[in-house]
Amino acid sequence: MQNAVLGVVQRGGESLQVARALLGEKTGATGSGADLVEQVVVLGRVAARERGISLETRGDTPSEPIWVVAESFVMACAETLRRWIQSVPNSSAGAATVSYQGDGTGGSLVQFGFEPVAGSLPFPLASADVVRCVASQVDAAGGIAQVLPAPSRGIKLHFPVATFVSRRKA
Question: Which of 68, 110, 122, 170 gives 20 to 30 Å between its CA and that of 25?
């Protein structure tokens, strides 16, 4: 019972961090990158549903948390997700995907993809357009936005440890 309550309290704290970041509050707080991405995805599901697609997280959560500066990380991920969902052509059926993982050196990788429904016609994704739109914001957050080459098709945000990720929670 105690673990369940602590889990709910932790998720509430992460939701509050995301809400503060989206409202422009600058606290300098750090948070678990994986948990913050999950909260951004929860909010992004509304926009995805309005476009007629689903939004899913993929991959395993890193065994050790990777602490990130919450405000700039959330803003970069949320803006990329918003533009990624908007770039999916109308009447496309499938799932937008978001995965989070460590880069092996203490940094963070966030990947955005799209998996069409089996049997649907292929369509071009505007990955390069989205990267151009978010590059300055991701760069200001200390990250790098890249287009994923085929067959992955999508976007990768890389936040190296040296410029962005804090090794310990403040």
Answer: 110
**What's the CA gap between 72 and 142, in Å, rounded?**
9
Q: Nearest-CA neighbor of 101 among 70, 131, 138, 64?
A: 64
Query: What separation in angstroms does the CA of 45 have from each of 48, 82, 87, 102, 165?
Result: 5, 10, 15, 24, 26
At CA 94, angle to CA 88 and CA 98, rounded to 5?
A: 75
Element (H, E) at 139: helix 127-140
- 51-73 tens-digit pLDDT: 889 999 998 888 888 888 888 89
Question: Which domains, and CATH codes, for the chain?
Answer: 2-166 (3.30.565.10)
Q: Does residue 127 surpass a pLDDT of 70?
A: yes
- Establish how many alpha carbons lie within 13 A of residue 54's alpha carbon, considering only the half-sphere containing its beta carbon: 8
Using CA atoms in the order 132, 114, 82, 124, what is the torsion angle rounded to 10 degrees? 50
pTM recorded for the entire structure: 0.80
Sheet holding 144-148, edge to edge: 54-58, 94-102, 108-116, 154-159, 144-148
Question: What is the per-residue burial (b if ≥16 Cβ within 10 Å, else e) of 6-32?
Answer: eeeeeeeebbebbebbeeeeeeebbbb
